[in-house]
Write a structure and sequence with these properties.
It holds the Pfam family Prenyltrans. The protein is mostly helical. The chain has helices at 7-16, 32-45, 58-63, 96-108, 112-118, 121-130, 157-169, 175-179, 184-193, 209-221, 230-241, 279-292, 296-299, 302-313, 331-344, 356-365; strands spanning 65-69, 76-80, 321-322, 329-330, 348-349, 354-355. It is globular, with a radius of gyration of 20 Å.
Length: 367
């Protein structure tokens, strides 16, 4: 794999997203912290030896951390905003997603001092708690006027995962730790309700690879994977394995069974049934498999996954990975393509989607 992986080209592609982007990317300015996350984590996963040079930008990342008073209360909440563009004085514009992005970037750049001297663990945990809804799920942000979960945000398994990941990185390890801030019983009930008849997780009984990964990663961080029954585990394993599209070495061969099968998808994973393969779903499906069983590499064909990513969606000219073999590379699919490859070679922590070395060093330093 190493000879096919164009690391130096990917380094350049990722660094470009940390420097000057074309005007076509202007609409992504509110998501600037997400761009930083995918770029820094990609460089770290690819062992870029000059990543410490980006520590000069730590003050910019730290300034995205905001703390403010809850409406009609004496208590405070805190979190990260995505960009100076949405950093509006006196208005709560931070979100769960940007908060997780900010924390993991600081961990990757080894800014452990932030966690001991700047981060207010109580207020950030209170923000997470405030985002939980009555049905146990989470919204990504709060209404700036009422301080309640935003009525215009969706509530789904993505934000359940992000909420639990934030609490994990800010010190929660045991069930008692998590229950200080969120209703774990209600969260587990919500996750259970998202189980689909054929296996996997999703809304309206339609399993989705991304939601499945989020559900399983949430249970993993909560240390609640025993919450999954053996019957549902087997169904989910089968459903996930059936998402690898190929005419060789897979559970279901595609000839005459998938009207949308494209032979260039060979070895990739699809997000749902009868869909094309997609770089990001290689990570989501492999992460789910790795959480469900330690024997996951023997159940799917990881060689075919490598071939799909390196021969089909890797851009060998300008670097980066694309959604499919017909698209241009983008920063989101680039990082998840790298993450899938690193999950296979054993250097990535799947539930937190970050290099094991960075996570372990942080945990060692956080006591």
């Amino acid at each position: 794999m190493d000879s096919k992986l164009k690391k130096e080209k990917h380094w350049k592609f990722l660094k470009r997203h940390l420097n000057l982007l074309p005007s076509s990317h202007q609409k992504q300015d509110p998501n600037r912290l997400a761009l930083v996350f995918y770029s820094i984590l990609g460089l770290s996963a690819l062992e870029y030896d000059k990543i410490d040079g980006y520590k000069v930008h730590l003050p910019w990342i730290r300034r995205r951390y905001q703390k403010m008073k809850i409406p009609e209360s004496k208590e405070y909440i805190s979190g990260f905003v995505g960009s100076p563009l949405v950093d509006i004085p006196g208005l709560n514009t931070f979100s769960l997603s940007n908060t997780l992005f900010g924390l993991i970037v600081l961990i990757t750049l080894k800014d452990y001092d932030f966690f001991t001297t700047i981060l207010d663990h109580d207020s950030i945990s209170r923000f997470v708690s405030s985002c939980q809804t009555i049905n146990g799920s989470f919204k990504s942000s709060l209404d700036p006027v009422t301080g309640l979960p935003s009525p215009v945000d969706s509530d789904d398994l993505r934000f359940c995962y992000i909420a639990v990941a934030i609490l994990y990185l800010t010190g929660c390890r045991t069930m008692d730790d998590f229950e200080k801030f969120i209703d774990v019983k209600n969260l587990l009930k919500y996750i259970k309700e998202q189980e689909c008849t054929v296996g996997g997780y999703g809304k309206f009984d339609e399993p989705h690879s991304g939601y499945t990964s989020c559900a399983l990663a949430t249970l993993s961080l909560l240390n609640c994977t025993e919450f999954i029954t053996n019957e549902f585990k087997e169904k989910t394993l089968c459903w996930l394995l059936q998402r690898q599209v190929s005419n060789e070495g897979c559970m279901i061969l595609q000839d005459d069974k998938n009207a949308t099968y494209d032979e260039t998808d060979n070895g990739g994973f699809q997000g749902r049934e009868n869909k094309f393969a997609d770089t990001c779903y290689c990570f989501w499906c492999l992460n789910s498999l790795s959480i469900l069983t330690p024997d996951w590499k023997g159940l799917c064909d990881t060689d075919l996954v490598n071939s799909y990513l390196l021969d089909q969606t890797q851009n060998t000219i300008i670097g980066g990975f694309s959604k499919t073999d017909e698209d241009d590379p983008d920063i989101y699919h680039t990082y998840l393509g790298i993450a899938a490859l690193k999950l296979i070679d054993g250097t990535l922590d799947g539930p937190l989607c970050m290099p094991i070395s960075s996570l372990q060093e942080f945990l060692n330093n956080s006591g």
